[in-house]
Amino acid sequence: MSDEVSNQDLIHAWQSGDENAAAVLFHRYRLRLIALIRSRLARKLARRVDPDDVLLSAYRSFFVAARKGHSPVPDSDDLWPYLATVTLRKLSRTVRQHTAGRRAVDLEITDPSGWLQAAGTDDLAVEHSAILADEVELLLTKLDATAREVLVRTLRGDDPWTIASSLSIHERTVRRALERIREELPLGPGEVPVSLRPVVRPPAPRTPCRRVGTTTYADYVLQKFLGAGAFSKVYRASERATGRTVAVKFLKRDCWNDDRATTALIKEYEILQGLKHPNLLRIDDWGTTPRGALFLVTEYVDGIDLGCWGRTRHPAVARIVEIVGEVARAVDFAHSHGVLHCDLKPANVMLQEDGRIALCDFGLARYATAPDDVPQGGTAGFLCPEQISDTYGPITERTDVHGIGGLLYALLTGHPPVVGRDLPDIITRVLSPALPAAPLAMGAQSTPELDAIVLKCLQKEPNLRFESARALAEALSSLRIPATG
Question: How much is the pLDDT for 374?
């Protein structure tokens, strides 16, 4: 039976006795559903749970419902949302079985350097989000705004101190909110929601890191906190000897003794040392504090990131296209030196008052010849399928083309290409074949030609995107944006 037959026709054929139609339906979504299941499983659980068993259980439920006439096919004829929902519910039940009683998978130590933590959470949080998806959705409707934000950030993996700092509230307020959340969760007597339990981690070694850098901590005076990411925090500082203003990026405390995190920071230094370009952040030195925290010293960019620029300056479409074209050319330069950025988004591009852009944060960058030498990562709403599952192929230059398209989409619409209720929902949408709505359809100031470029970048299949960042830059430069656009 041809793969071009619609899902609706396949269901009718199967209901009429054609078993081959069921096989076509099964294989049509199998690979993506397997990738979805694997993306939700922490490494410890992946040893116990067979994705094929979960998938077969989901399909059994689907076909039982279809036999009873309860399996809706939408007008788009796309069964992915329906099958993904059924599959996640089956996976939730399976995970519950494996986290019950003494098995206590939630207390096992997970790899803190996986791609999900880089996206703002970790494998553990995603697994538990799947378990509690239905309860959490109901719970959010019962909480006040502060408690809702505390819950969301807790599920993302943030600790109470980090949550309090980011929300500008006292840590006691965060802990009281967590107590209210525990009281509201519909669990059995004595149960504690696994997502809110403390994670058991090994004690940090007592001896500080002894790596020797190219500079010393005493050479700089910290002046102002600028911001923080998943693994690091950044300060404006002054170099004592020259008075020069620089930026200093420190690893967060819980990463000081994480070999992969420290190696990634030094790799960022090595990568940027080999990239000399006016639109790439210049890096100067790296070192270690007396207590063992690694840090990088970079140029200080006096400006705002493109996300803030887009929200506050309301730039014209022509200027957005011009800026993104410059980003594409900077990325192409990195590609010509064998470097993939892998985390392109508005927050990682700085715009100076003189108009110069600086592409920053190469913390997830990798060499194209060794794409697996650092953990996969990125920011959830800007991810492409191959950053979640190798089912979609390796990470290549076209991964960054997708990232540039996501950056352009966000500047035009005000939000990432993929949005959802929570991280699991976003991942499901990233793996879905459906493309984001075109910027014009979202009410953005754009043109049909510009929309076509954006959507070509955001294709789920890498070979359907622009072949290179240079080709994308050339397509943007050839656009003629009306003065009112």
Answer: 54
Tokens of 310: 């887009």
Residue in the structure block whose two tokens are 């909110």? 177
CATH number where 173 lies: 1.10.10
38 and 55 Cβ atoms separated by less than 8 Å: no
Which is nearest to 340 in space by CA: 307, 388, 373, 381? 373
- Determine, yes or no, domain membership for 208: no
Contact 49, 43 (CB under 8 A): no
Concerning whether 332 is annotated as a catalytic residue, the answer is no
Which residues of the chain fall below pLDDT 70? 1-4, 42-48, 69-72, 75-76, 96-141, 155-158, 183-212, 230, 370-377, 483-485
How does pLDDT run across 318-327, given as a tens digit for each residue?
Answer: 999 999 999 9
In eight-state DSSP terms, residue 189 is: T
Cα 300 to the center of its chain, rounded Å = 26
Residue 2 lies in a domain: no
Domain edge (last residue) among 165, 196, 227: 196
CA-nearest of 432, 426, 367, 360 to 397 is: 367
Residue with tokens 């990798």: 366
| Distances in whole angstroms, Cα of residue 25 to Cα of each of 8, 50, 440 | 10, 21, 34
Q: What is the pLDDT of residue 205?
A: 38
Which of 268, 299, 330 is a domain's end point?
299
With b for 16 or more beta-carbon neighbours within 10 A and e for fewer, the 229-257 pattern comes to: bbbbbbbebbbeeeeeebbbbbbbeebbb
With beta carbons less than 8 A apart as the criterion, state whether 422 and 462 touch.
no
pLDDT at position 264, please? Answer: 81
What pLDDT was estimated at residue 397? 94
Is 466 a domain residue? yes
Edge-first strand listing for the sheet containing 357-359 = 303-305, 349-352, 357-359
Residue 96 pLDDT: 67
Instruction: Kindly list the distances between the CA atom of residue 470 and the CA atoms of 324, 326, 334, in Å, as whole numbers in the listed order.
Output: 12, 10, 11
Q: Check whether residue 29 and residue 44 sit in a common domain.
A: yes
Report how far apart the first and last C-alpha atoms of the chain are (Å, whole number). 48
Q: How many domains is the chain partitioned into structurally?
A: 4
212 inside domain:
no
How distant is the alpha carbon of residue 180 from its chain centre?
Answer: 29
Contacts of 409 (CB under 8 A, 6+ apart): 416, 417, 436, 439, 454, 458
- Containing structural domain, residue 251: 217-299
Judge if 326 and 469 occupy the same domain.
yes
> Strand 294-299's sheet: what is its strand order?
220-228, 232-239, 245-251, 294-299, 283-288
Say how far apart CA 201 and CA 231 lie, in whole Å: 17
Same domain? 88 vs 143: no
For residue 106, report the phi and psi dihedrals to the nearest 5 degrees: -65, -15
The one catalytic residue in 343, 361, 400, 451 is: 343
Looking at residue 104, its pLDDT comes to: 35
